[in-house]
Each structure stands twice: as C-alpha cells, then as structure tokens.
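Assemble and predict.
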Amino acid sequence: MKHSVNRRHFLKLSSFTGGGLMLGLVLPEWAKATGSAADCESFKPSAYLCINKDNTVIVYVAKQEIGQGVNTSLPMLVAEELECDLKSIKVEIAPYGSLGQGAHDTGGSQSVMGLFDPMRKAGATARTMLIAAAAKRWNTGVEVCTAEKGKVVNNKTGASLSFGELVCDAAKEEVPKEVLLKNVKDFKVIGKGQKKNNLKDILTGKVQYGIDVKVPGMVYAAVARCPVMGGKLVSVDDSEALKIPGVVKVLRYEGTGAPMHVRAGVAVVATNSWAALRARKALKIVWDESKGKGVNTAQLEKDMAARAKQKPAEAIPVKGNAADTIIAGPNSMVAEYSAPFVAHATLEPVNFTAQVKDGKCELWGGLQLPDWTVGLVAQELQIKSSDIKVNLTLSGGGFGRRLHSDFALEAVKLAKQLDHPVKVIWDRTDDIRFDVFRPANHHRLAAKWDAQGRITHWQHHVLTTSITRVQRPDAKQLSENLGGASQDFWYDIPNVYAGYSNVDFSINRGWVRGVEFVVNVFPLESFVDEVARKLKKDPLQYRLSMLEGRKPFEAKFNDNWKETIDPERMAGVLKLAADKIGWHKPAAKNIYRGIACHCYTTAKAYAAHAVEIEIKGPKQFIIKKIVATIDCGLVIDPDGLKNQMEGGTVFALSQALKSEIHIQDGKVVEDGFFNYGVLRYNEMPAIEVHVVPSEASPGGAGEVGLPTLAPALCNALAAAGNRPRRLPLQKDGYSWS
Amino acid sequence: MPKHQLNINEQVFTVEAEDDMPLLWVLRDVLNMTGTKYGCGVASCGACTVLLNETAVRSCATTIKSCAGAKITTIEGLSDALLHPVQQAWEEVNVPQCGYCQAGQVMSVAGMLKRNKQPSKETIEAVMSQVICRCGTYDRIRRAIDIAVAKVNNP
C-alpha cells in the first residue's frame, strides 16, 4: 500500500474537519435491483435498504452511531418516502464496503446534512418500484395506486398488497432514474419526535458495543505504553507478569510517528481482560523518556502568551486594512484568552479487536473514519485494502476519538504476532493518558471603534498546538482548518485581520466534539461582550446591531472552503435565547445573565446560549438556568435534536468548569475520573432547549451545542464584575453549585 | 483454581476463577453477560452497577468471592419486557444517547428505590452523582427518576 492513499484521504478529511466541502455524500451504487429469482425472499433496490417477504424493512446506516442518533434519524428519512411505519424498520450497520469511499465517514455534525437526499431517494425509489409492481399485478395504471403504512393500495378497488407480497415483482422492475420527493408540508415522520431506535436493547442490556465483541478463539491484551510521545523501550522484565494465571504471553512493538503517533508498547496477552490488566502491573519496564524532557503545559502557557504579542506566523488580511492598523488608544481594547488540552473520555473506553491470518486481516470496533483506518492498516501489514474486512460496531460515545486509528493500529501490531484474534482493552487511565487531545489554545484580540461605538477594526491572533501540524508536520498552511469564527464571521465589521501561529508541543492532538476552529468562539464571543460592556451598551443589543439588516454573505476561508452565513438567522437564535432567559426583565439581587452566539458554518447551523447565575461570593456562583437555542434548518427528529443540545451543553459545561489535561515532562498527569473533571449529576443546572422553526435545508447538531456555553457563562460572570479569560474556571479558583 | 457458585438473575452458575477476580470481569469475559459495562475499573463512574442482594454495588470493585450466597441482579435480569418501573420511566423520557452508561444509571435507580421509595432530592443527588454520563443525559435522568418514583409509589 502506497502512502498516496492516506494522502488522498487526508485531503478529503480536511474538507470536513475544518473546510467546507461536504463529506460522505457518496451516492450508493444503484446496483441493479436484486431479489434473487430463485428464492425471491427480498428486494434490495439500493445499498441503503432491503425489504423482506415477511414485510420487515432493513435500513443500512453507514454512519457510525456514537450517541448522536443517526440510527434513528437516518431511517426516519427512508420511512418518510417509503411510506412504512418506523417501527417496522430494522436498523443495521451498513457493511463496510457496501457503499462508496467516504460513505462511513462520521464527523463535523454532517451525517443528516449529507444523507438527507440520498436516504429519502432510497425510500422513494423502493416505493416507486413497489407501486409499479402492484399496478402490473392489478393490471391498472400506477396513478391509481398509492403506498401507505407498508402497503400499496389500489384506490379504485380498495385492494391492497403488503410490501412483502410485492418483493419478487418489485425486484424485476426497472430502477427509476428520477423519483419524486415529498413536499415538506406532506411529511408524516420527519419532524415528529421518535424514541431511540435501540431503546429497548439499551434498557435490557442487549446492546453491544466494540468492547463487547467476542470472536471465537479470542485473547485479550492490555498494553503498557511509553509515557512520552516518541519514546522507546529500553528493557522489560516480564517474569512476574508471566506467572499470573491466565497470561498467555508478553509482546512488544515499536511506536510510529505521524499521522497516528502510536506509542511504543509492551502488551500482556491473556485469556481474560482482568488477567491482562493485572499482569500488566507486574511488568518491570524501563522507557527512554528523554523526548519528554521539558514538555510541560505550565511552560506552554507562558510560551503562548509571549508568542501572542509577536507577529503571527500566518496572516490573513480578511477585509479592509486591519492588518496594518496598530490598535491602541482610548477607543480600543486588547484582551487575551486561553483554554487547555482536553480529553474525550468517552464512557466506553477505547478498545479494538483484530485478527491477522494468511495475509488477510479482520477488524472489529467502532470507527468514525474506517477508510482512513483501512489505508493505514494496509500500510502496516503491507497488504491490499481489499484483504481487510471491517466489522463496525456501535460506540459508547465518540466525540471524535474514534476518528483516529492509533488504537486499531496497535491491535493490528499485536494481531500480526498472534495466531488468535486479539481484543485490546484500554482501562480508564489508558484512555485518558493516551488520548488525542483537543489542542491547548491562546488568543489575542484587538478592536477599535468609532465615535458611535461601532467596531471598525478587528484583529484576532489564534495560537494553537495545531492538529494539522501534528498529523502532517509538512503541512504548508496552518490556518487551513482554523478560519471559522476568526475570519469572515457573523458580525458586520469593515476591517478584519486574522493571524495564526502554531506552538510546537510534543503530545498528540485531535478533534474533540467539534472541528478545529470552534476554539475561536470562546474568545470571539467573550471579546465582543467585553467591548459592549466597556461601551456601556447592552451586550445583546450590541450584537444585534452588527447582525440585523446584514444580508447573507459568502465567507471564504480558503480556496476549497466557502460558507454562506446568514446574520438574520444568527440574530434569530440570539433573540430567542434572550427571550427565554428573561433578558429584558429586571434581574433580582445577585442574579446576572450572559449570552453568546455562533454560526457552526460546516454544519450549517446557528446556536446560542443564555445563562443565568447567582453570585454567592467573589468567585462563587450557582448556575440557575441555561437556555440553549438552535437553528439547524429543517428538523428531522425534534426529541433527538433536544437531546443533542442538552448533551452538547453538558459536555461544554465540563470543559468550561473543570476539564483540563496537564502535562509534565511529556507525561499526562490526569489518570481517571478522580482528577479529570467531568460534570456529574449533582452539578446539572436547569436547562431548556428551544428550536427556531426553519425549512432551510437540514444542518447538523451534535457539535453545535458546545461552543457558546463557555462564553455565555463567562459573560454572566463578567456582568457580575469579574471577567474570566481562561478556562476551565476551576483553574482560577472559581467554585459553583 | 477455586470454584464459585453465583446466583445471577435467578439462575445458578458455577465459575472457576481466582477469588479476587472482580464480578464485572466474571460477568463480561467468563459468562459473556455484557450488559454490565466497564467504565473505569475503580468505582469512579458507576457504569458497572449491579444489585447485590438488592443493593447497588460497583461490580468492578466487588470480588467474586464476596458474592458467595448473594443474589445478583444485572440489567439483563430487570425485565425483558420492560416491566420494571425504572425501565418504563427511561423509555417514556427517551433518556439515552449512546446508551453505554445507562445500565449503570438504571441499576443505580433500581437499587435506590428498593431501599427508599421516596428518596429526597439530596439522596437522589448523592446516589446519581456516582454515575457518569458523558453524552450529558442528566436532565432526562432527573425527569425519568421523578416518573420512576411516581410509578413505584402508585403501581
């Protein structure tokens, strides 16, 4: 396997991790409709669905279900056009390889956006063919036949035939080149809240995730990984580990560099997870950790703050002449903001199962970018991609962790040394210490305004431990995925300049429930609020004055990445959030409110948060209420959307309040939920989600509910007189309840 | 290797395992009952919660030996037909996202309600703060607990 495969995938990958091209819009091969003439058990008009003689409809979902609800929302699209009861649909993971390249890519909150038309067309195609088959059976025209509730009805005679009764005939019909899709007003399934498709399986313990995979002959492995990136094994004494009952053997492998940065490892292989985990503790290992020396987050913070005052490595003169303007003096302001490395900490820790046998490989687990994984595995084993079989599973959370393939490559490095399939178990400490962290970031913003208080000049210097650079050290353009929310954003400002600097740091980085540019929203929405407050203007009205009346415009981030931003839609979510938090009502004593908004360009969605707090002491507060609002166009599953916004808010609240990864001498300090802070039940504030009704083409939601929570909360604290400029709040001594 | 008799979901199993093997791994790797989930291994996340004599415990921190003579209930033993009030409440509110933590959430509430049919807000917070949901379904869990409490008191 040549490197070019990965390269090509990378180009595609960057198109959704930051840039604007749509991913996964791979149309199914509209293969000749099948339904074997011999047994005639089923009708499979496309790779997306199959109808069986017993009337069951199977919908194949190619996107990785990680909690975002694709296994509920995508089948709804098929049911709508096919005219069948959603309950009659059995959801299956689309077999890897049954659709084109990129079909399984899951990220950027783009699944519904990319499949809104293809899944509906799949349903409509099947319906059209079933109707044609029924019409022939009745010797009548298709115009007198309609499909409803899993049947085709003859409107002249009242006769009906179930889809199951028609599968043989429908399979013989020509696949129509074009099909008619319903108008929004005729939707019966889309727009109605649905129960999660596998709710019953979840509540009875039947649901299976990657960690539950069991393959005949399988062994279990726990890996001791080099604590620092790029480090090497010096020696290992495995004599004590091998004495532990259940231990089969101890294996070693070397680490690899970009893009996945697999750490060097020593693996204990055993007959069960517990024996492997226990024996790992008995290994006596000496690592060469010299590469981690001096790699400290405390120093990184200082380096970033110092670098912020210098000229950016890459400068983009977005609009007007802000680049050459020195911002200083009375009608101006400069401020800096920062946020640390954060982990995914999916509740199902990373795990993966692999078998390598006779020049072929089989993989089991949850993967958000399986094509990328397959390319890298093929390269590792020097085999063809077609000799790799991938069995995708459900995942207990993704948040971008399963976009990476380090864990899969590790399992393959072990499997090629074994005669058995092997499941690599990561304990919680492994999962946190060897995560792929959301980059630490620092921002310097400067603004200048005129006599009326209108911002005329805006500069934003983004400093980050770049994802692009850790995956592709030779990447030419650092800013390629960082333009959103820093270049041509939603506020109407005539002179805008954005600059980007990478600050080298030896730890692996990746996307955490958001594309790379979302870290720009906290500084942007804090700073605009600071300017408003300095000018003694209402922060809501100040924002609206830069949004209302502004026409939709095309924001161009680079040659491949353009997005339309509609400031009126932005204003819409902002006003709704303000209304629902009671922005215009006087606040009681010690009660303060903050607000923030953003446009998640790559998911074609607009969102806002409004937060109400009660101040209990100088750095002590209670979150009384959170309002989250979204406009993501046409809504498929309103209850699923609300769940995503609630969940996004909780995830963001963890990050705003207490999530932080520290690194000392290249080693991650945090090792579990005792010291890596995530929100718990007792800290959950009251939350309301409100949706702006829209018939705009559907966007996404999974990542959209995060970016504005931290600035809205910090803006409320600023209203009380104390502006936080770095996250998490815990770091600066804040406490909450 | 020592032999152990386990009474799980009203069925008796004989298992050969080290005395200190955690119940979690016995369930998952030996008995292939994967409804009980691994989340941390050190009783800090609640994902592996099961009932031991009707009390919610973390199976990752419960040795097989300490289960001798006890009645163990896992998520698989609650009710296949969703007849348990906690399952019903969870279904009504449509709580889960990824679903991974939910066995632990449901078993924790089931255990709490066995001991106390009318738990105070403080009791609920003390119990449920031990169970992490990374998808962030806490508000739904809160609503579902209210429903489950009502169902238990007015069956």
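The mean pLDDT of chain B is 97.
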